[in-house]
Amino acid sequence: MWLAAGTGALYILGNTYYISWLKTLGLSSSFLP
């Protein structure tokens, strides 16, 4: 049960990081010619 909660938190954390990384990538690429 504790392991499942830890995995869930890790998944959410990774998802948030991935989305923010994609946003940053999209923003930086839109500034490029």
Description:
By secondary structure, the chain is mainly alpha-helical. The chain has one helix spanning 2-31. The longest helix is centred in the middle third of the chain and has 30 residues, at 2-31. The mean pLDDT is 85.
List the helices and strands and how they pair.
Layout: H1 2-31
The whole-number mean of residue pLDDT values reads 85
Number of strands: 0
Radius of gyration: 14 Å
N/C terminus separation: 50 Å
Order of helices and strands: H
Secondary-structure content class: mainly alpha
Provide the β-strand percentage band. Answer: under 5%
Number of helices: 1
Question: What brief labels describe this structure?
Answer:
33 residues, mainly alpha, 1 helix, 91% helix
